[in-house]
Amino acid sequence: EVQLVQSGAEVKKPGESLRISCKGSGFTFTSYWISWVRQMPGKGLEWMGRVDPSDSYTKYSPSFQGHVTISADKSTSTAYLQWSSLKASDTAMYYCARGRSSGYYYGMDVWGQGTTVTVSS
Amino acid sequence: DIQMTQSPSSVSASVGDRVTITCRASQGLGSWLAWYQQRPGKAPKLLIFAASSLQSGVPSRFSGSGSGTEFTLTISSLQPEDFATYYCQQANTFPYTFGQGTKLEIK
To answer: B5: distance to nearest CA of chain A, Å?
Structure first.
């Protein structure tokens, strides 16, 4: 079965660091890029950035550049989203999703189940 | 950034109705657009890619059209499971951006 399985919910304090993960299975991980998408409580979807696991090339949204780091380990078919210093405003659900584009856009067709991050003092 | 504007932001409809959601882009996208459905508490689900291609496994009552700056998602005959929030998303230019969402509610 093709799937992305994300790590579990996290509760952190402001200023703490965090890394959440997204493990792919059932497909060739290096044939797709992995995006991260934020959804704040009661709000819409925001694209944060993506990584190409084949070469670890990343693209970020300017809204998130410098505040998060996206990476991937192709040997374990796992993508990561990490923060060095969390803020209360990082409280949200985070989804990973796979996608590809080759001549045209195939969309993000497989999504993880989401990881809830709560940042509170 | 390319701004994606969906209309309406919410719509009430009945089972069996035909519903159309519009997505307008601030710049031309070609056909680099996708539509997603999100039910409460669930991850988004891809419905349409490349503006008009139906994702495998998605019922044929869903269809997409448009190119450039104006796109539409049409549900031909609403079913109970279709009441959800719908998002368009462009992948023509980084950063990718989503519309603000259209909430489809039961009348």
So the answer is: 12
Take residue B49 and report the two structure tokens written for it: 């890619």
- What is the spatial distance between Cα A33 and Cα B79, in angstroms, rounded to a whole number? 33
Angle at A52 between CA B27 and CA B56, to 5 degrees: 70
Percent of chain B with pLDDT over 70: 100
The reported pLDDT for the residue numbered B27 is: 97
The residue among B6, B46, B47, B88 with the most chain A CBs within 10 A of its CB, best to mutate, is B46
Report the candidate in A23, A8, A7, A18 with the shortest Cα–Cα distance to residue A74. A23
For the CA atoms of B98, A34, A115, A92, the dihedral, rounded to the nearest 10 degrees, stands at -30
What is the rounded CA–CA span in Å between residue A26 and residue A33? 15
The answer to whether the Cβ–Cβ distance between A61 and B91 falls below 8 Å is: no
Please compute the mean of the pLDDT values over residues B54-75 and round it to a whole number: 98
Nearest to B103 by CA among B87, B84, B89: B84
Across B81-90, average pLDDT: 97
What are the beta bridge partners of residue A34? A51, A98
Using CA atoms, how far apart are residues A109 and A46, in angstroms rounded to an integer? 16
Q: Hey, are the CB atoms on A105 and B87 less than 8 Å from each other?
A: no
